[in-house]
TrEMBL record:
Name of the protein described by the UniProt record: 3-isopropylmalate dehydrogenase
Catalysed reactions, semicolon-separated: (2R,3S)-3-isopropylmalate + NAD(+) = 4-methyl-2-oxopentanoate + CO2 + NADH
Summary of subunit composition and partner proteins: Homodimer.
GO cellular component, one term: cytosol
Role summary: Catalyzes the oxidation of 3-carboxy-2-hydroxy-4-methylpentanoate (3-isopropylmalate) to 3-carboxy-4-methyl-2-oxopentanoate. The product decarboxylates to 4-methyl-2 oxopentanoate.
Pathway(s) this gene product operates in, as recorded in its UniProt entry: Amino-acid biosynthesis; L-leucine biosynthesis; L-leucine from 3-methyl-2-oxobutanoate: step 3/4
Keyword line: Amino-acid biosynthesis, Branched-chain amino acid biosynthesis, Cytoplasm, Leucine biosynthesis, Magnesium, Manganese, Metal-binding, NAD, Oxidoreductase
Binding of substrate, residues: R100, R110, R138, D222
Co-factor binding comment: Binds 1 Mg(2+) or Mn(2+) ion per subunit.
Site label Important for catalysis, positions: Y145, K190
The keyword Cytoplasm is assigned to this record: yes
Top-level division of the source organism's lineage: Bacteria
Amino acid sequence: MDILNKKIIVLPGDGIGPEVCEEAIKVLEAVADRFGHRFTFEKHLMGACAIDSTGSPLPEETLEACYYADAVLLGAIGDPKYDNNPAAKVRPEQGLLQLRKSLGLYANIRPVTAYDVLLDHSPLKNDRIAGADMLIFRELTGGIYFGEKGRTAAEAYDHCTYNREEITRIAHLAFQAAGNRRNKLTLVDKANVLETSRLWREVVQGIAPEYPSVAVDYLFVDNAAMQLILNPRQFDVMLTENMFGDILSDEASVIAGSLGLLPSASVGNIVSLFEPIHGSYPQAKGKGIANPIAAILSGAMMLEHFGLQAEADAVKEAVQNALRNEVLTPELNAVSPYTTEQVGSFIAYCVLEGVGSVPQKENIEVGLSTII
Ligand SMILES: NC(=O)c1ccc[n+]([C@@H]2O[C@H](COP(=O)([O-])OP(=O)(O)OC[C@H]3O[C@@H](n4cnc5c(N)ncnc54)[C@H](O)[C@@H]3O)[C@@H](O)[C@H]2O)c1
Ligand SMILES: CC(C)[C@H](C(=O)O)[C@@H](O)C(=O)O
Ligand SMILES: [Mg+2]
């Protein structure tokens, strides 16, 4: 077995970011203990907390540390004092966008799974969502997020631009992923209205013959939003531009049962970044109610990125154990909820002990109390 030594930069951020990051670190440390790796974690400022202490949402030293890391783990950024002040010139979200752009993280991969044991927790009907399993490839460094923007007293604009290269590079990743899954790729766009969407269609149509085993279909984003809820099993790999991907992936989290379950990996050519898709959920800060599973599964995606499949599988199995045993935060278990820290400890315990099947009641109690 190869023993790995990895340096992970952690950007806990704001709101529940630090709480969920702590649990992801706990689980990664359990992986290191069980499999004999050495992971070191170094925390840096980003977001509203960075503005408070340095004036910048992405201090130079944070960016520098990320460049030299083996991977970056991000919690979430954002604070109501900026959300509720449209006139603020410096904002936490600028740090996140600048980080994505500077690290060239052009592809954001967001897996969506309808876990059998959670089917009853989704507000959607079981028979609609059972078996749903898709990967959303969201373009992350282009489009309306990064186009020229401006405003006068009476008017504002945000330009949406894409070039062929930006579409081509993520399209290849999405086709490759589809080729390793169920061989279906759906491009979601608004090609009936937007010029940028027509370029996406043209580029994807041009690439498709290179992947003859992958069936491609095209959906307008308004229809896609409906199809996602109506029949999510039809999707295997969904490829889409930046803003559509942002919106559709939050929508897709309803299939899983909670926004607190969806992880992501952002990849480019420098260093990869792993983060839950949710935000800083400021209403939950410090209450111990945030679901840490999205952050923990982002850690599992990091392990896969390191080539540690057995280790990633151990984390995913441990998460399944928590789900099966209802060791869940209140948004998924209103009757006897567990805290953020307890869910993390239980998952770390399952990783450490290699508890594969449904553990006994006493194991749950030991798991909750041993690793803090
Ligand atoms: N990548 C990021 O850092 C990121 C992503 C989205 C939003 N944000 C920022 O977060 C702040 C709040 O935004 P928002 O309220 O629109 O989105 P949010 O994702 O923070 O929360 C939306 C809702 O999702 C649920 N939720 C989110 N995370 C959860 C978790 N871990 N466990 C259980 N439930 C969870 C809650 O019901 C919450 O009210 C804003 O400042 C926004 O800009 C940051
Ligand atoms: C906070 C915001 C800039 C961000 C985005 O829109 O990309 C978030 O919603 C996300 O999904 O990571
Ligand atoms: Mg989002």
